[in-house]
Design a protein that fits this description.
α10 runs parallel beside α12. The protein is elongated. The chain is of the alpha/beta class and about 425 residues long.
């Protein structure tokens, strides 16, 4: 099986996430099409992304294309990157692990400022690039005009592959292609694949992602016009992103050689406790990862901030030290650590603090404002009420003073409090 990592890049509002949605749908991964404006896109998993309608974090999805027309079965890992310039660092990190890229261009707006920036980054990282001109169903979208613009901005290597490519256009891209076209009138598949991998030919496809127009041709091009890069015999991987999930660290990496197994010890001395293969917001656990796979490495040996908050419930520093050692030694995640602390509190090993009740307040600021407002209304009603606040490192002590017998109208105080 051929395994490739393909990145989707575009200027904001070019329809990149819609294209990813359509590709997953046409490949059979999704049963129902989501939309960015409906806030149900498969790769917009963050609440801020759904609310704003833009991609903020690079997300991955995995699809498999069956073998057909002399091509091998292909597993594509799509990396949907942010298109907004404010999040360009997130997109540039993903470029380090791409085998191929799809640069999405709006059929009505053409090549924009950030499109050229992305093109320069793709050239810097030597990423072979496909171009998909989107929104061709809108008024003002002209394929001939867009193709001339692409050739003027990015060179003669931009060739229309929506139908059979023009041999004369291919002949201008490299000397081996010119020799074959002059000799036989067509180019061989191996020579064409070499030219695409060397960034001499940039296949261009035209369509409308929202209407699923042109997506089958793009999928066929990603399967038939690509080749898997050579893999090293020894284990190798490239980490391109670090995130956090439920208080534990996730390292996003692409395996470039060998095989990564669960519980393997990495060259840095850390252990691969869990291997997650994400697709959208969901993941499945895998036991091994082959070259060309993007996997998330979960390392449970470090204590996160949420582990520390659980330990603070144990008042005795010596008990905290022993509990922290147990968490690291057993590789506890946050849920396991909280359950472990709760068990210690209920046992005879730990004596909980006495002398006052402990109240859990979801929003301390809102509570304090309510108290202050209530006492203010009481003073307006002629009641000599007040409060004293004392902040310590771990708690806020409130002393509220209200006379036992108060005169005046204070009917509205209970509602405010």
């Amino acid at each position: 099986m051929k395994r490739l990592v393909v990145g989707l890049l575009a200027h904001v509002d070019s329809g990149k996430t819609t294209l990813a949605e359509g590709l997953l749908y046409r490949a059979g991964v999704l049963r129902k099409l989501g939309r960015v404006d409906h806030r149900d896109a498969f790769l917009d998993t963050d609440s801020q992304e759904r609310a704003r309608g833009i991609t903020i974090f690079a997300k991955q999805a995995v699809l498999t294309l069956p073998a057909a027309d002399g091509t091998d079965e292909t597993e594509l890992t799509l990396l949907d990157t942010p298109g907004h310039v404010d999040f360009s660092a997130e997109a540039e990190r993903a470029l380090q692990v791409l085998d191929y890229a799809v640069l999405v261009v709006s059929g009505t707006d053409g090549v924009q400022a950030h499109t050229e920036t992305l093109w320069k980054l793709l050239a810097r990282y030597r990423v072979p690039t496909f171009i998909f001109v989107n929104k061709m169903d809108l008024p003002g979208a002209d394929a001939a005009v867009r193709l001339r613009e692409l050739r003027g901005r990015f060179g003669d290597g931009c060739v229309d592959f929506t139908t059979a490519p023009d041999p004369e256009a291919l002949a201008l891209c490299s000397e081996p292609l010119m020799e074959e076209v002059l000799a036989s009138g067509i180019s061989s598949r191996e020579t064409l694949l070499m030219a695409i991998a060397r960034r001499q030919v940039f296949p261009c496809f035209f369509g409308a992602a929202l209407r699923l127009d042109g997506l089958d041709g793009l999928l066929h091009g990603l399967q038939s016009l690509t080749r898997m890069p050579p893999a090293w015999g020894e284990f190798g991987a490239r980490v391109f992103k670090v995130s956090e999930d439920a208080g534990t660290r996730l390292s996003w990496l692409k395996v470039t050689g060998g095989v990564l197994h669960v519980k393997d010890t990495l060259p840095g001395g850390e252990k691969a406790d869990t291997l997650r293969l994400y697709s959208g917001g969901k993941f499945r656990l895998v036991s091994e990862c082959l070259p060309g796979t993007v996997v998330e490495l979960l390392q449970q040996g470090d204590l996160s901030e949420r582990h520390a908050r659980a330990l603070l419930r144990l008042q005795d520093p010596e008990v905290q030290r022993r509990a922290a050692g147990d968490m690291v030694r057993r590789g506890m995640n946050v849920a396991q650590a909280e359950a472990y602390v709760e068990k210690l509190l209920q046992s005879d090993q730990v004596t909980p603090p006495r002398g006052r009740s402990t109240y859990i307040i979801k929003d301390v600021r809102l509570f304090l404002n309510s108290v202050d407002r209530g006492l203010h209304l009481m003073r307006q009603a002629g009641v000599d009420a007040g409060w004293n606040r004392q902040d310590t490192d771990r708690e806020i002590l409130l002393t509220i003073r209200i006379p036992k017998r108060a005169s005046g109208k204070i009917d509205s105080v209970s509602e405010s409090c």
